[in-house]
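Why do we bother with a discrete structure alphabet at all? Because it lets us treat a fold like text: something you can write down, compare, and reason about line by line. To make this less abstract, here is a complete entry for SpoVT-AbrB domain-containing protein. Read it the way you would read a sentence in a foreign language you are learning: slowly, and without expecting to understand everything at once.
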Amino acid sequence: MAKKTAAKKQDIQPLVGKELLNKIKSLSHLSKREKAKECGYEIDGRVNLSSFMSAILEAKGISLDGEVNGDGRGREATYRVKVHKNGQIVIGATYTEKMELQTGDEFEIKLGYKHIHLVQITDDA
């Protein structure tokens, strides 16, 4: 019976993409090695952390090989923006998602010398 279990485990493909990221979120209580194991990155009793971490980066659209992201989504997120011809600066959904901002959230704009601070207005008053 142990041979059947081992054979079944080898047939399991490691998780990738959104499926991998969703699984990792559900395993937040586990260590990195245990997460890798649960996501299918164990071969012959050895956890392949390198492949696991590479798969996470790839799932997030980050390439360490200098290759362009092949999902057709265009530019990747950076912490730099440019002023558009119409004078606007677009922050982008990546950052609003990271900050867990919702439609309708308001900010106060505070201008400094060569910088802008956005201060979120909360209803704590």
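What the structure line is telling us, in plain words: The radius of gyration is 21 Å. The chain has a mean pLDDT of 78.
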